[in-house]
Structure formats: structure tokens, C-alpha cells
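Sequence in, structure out. Go.
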Amino acid sequence: MINSAKAFLSEENGEEYLGYVEDGKKQGYGELKMSEEKRYYGYFKDNLPHIKGVLIFSAEHYYMGQFANGKMHGKGKEISPNFTFEGEYSNDCKKYGKLVT
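Output:
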């Protein structure tokens, strides 16, 4: 039986999650605080960022776009103080697109 509800989870590693949980796993939309600065806002599948979301590395560095199995994968845009990249990602790596420094 599927049991889905909005919940707050506090992990032993310090991570905090607020969002939907289904059968004990992060599923659907949620917000994950990984550290004081690093956060993810978006969709989850089987506890991992999936489909689309925003990953904030710091106040001045973030990625918004597609995810697959916890990795930046598909179309996205990454902005930092040193560069802006818009294009395709594959398993967290920039594949092709436009880089502006």
C-alpha cells in the first residue's frame, strides 16, 4: 500500500527535508537543506533530485534545470560569480552549451 504525506525529516548527517514522502522515501516536491548554504528545491524520486529543480551551492552559485537520479542531467543553467553556463548537462558535467566568463 502506498502511503504519501508531507513530512519533515531530520537526518543523522545533518540534512533536513521538508516535502512529500511516499513509503519512507522522498517523492514529489520537496526542499532539502544539505548544509548552511547548500540546498535543493524541486522534485524527488526514490530520495534523489529528479525531473527539475534548483540546486544552491552558495549565495552566489546555483543551478536551475533538469535532474536525473540525483545528478544535473538535461537542460540547465548554472550561475556563479566567475561564469554563467546554459546548455546540456550529463551526470553533473557540462556537455555542451554557452559559457560566459
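Check: The longest strand covers residues 48-58. The chain is about 0% helix and 70% strand.
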